[in-house]
Design goal:
Blueprint: E1 2-9, H1 15-29, E2 35-42, E3 49-56, H2 59-66, H3 70-79, E4 89-93
Antiparallel strand pairs: 1-3, 1-4, 2-3
């Protein structure tokens, strides 16, 4: 499993509309083979900053399966105009996982 991580900076004043559209966009990403789950966190200190975390079975599920799909085009159409600057997306794999 890998985790896709992106810091999303949304244009000021667009936060509520972004959150509403993000809920809609969830149907597109969650329909992709290899998708596990995703969450969107809102920054407490900066109201237009978000953290997107997506769990995928493998890297190619995101980089090929999603990004080359018709669903990605819908995701992009709904969300990409909110970002300034456009986010950097990175992928991580677990090395240590401690749980209480």
């Amino acid at each position: 499993m890998i985790i896709e991580v992106a810091i999303l900076i949304v244009k000021k004043g667009e936060e509520k509309r972004f959150e509403e559209d993000f809920k809609i966009a969830g149907q597109y990403i969650s329909s992709i083979e290899g998708y596990i789950e995703h969450s969107l966190q809102k920054c407490i200190e900066q109201s237009n900053k978000y953290l997107l975390l997506v769990k995928w079975n493998k890297l190619q599920d995101h980089t090929v399966g999603f990004r080359e799909s018709a669903q990605y085009q819908q995701w992009k159409k709904l969300l990409h105009h909110y970002y300034d600057p456009f986010p950097v997306v990175e992928h991580f794999e677990t090395i240590i996982d401690l749980k209480k």
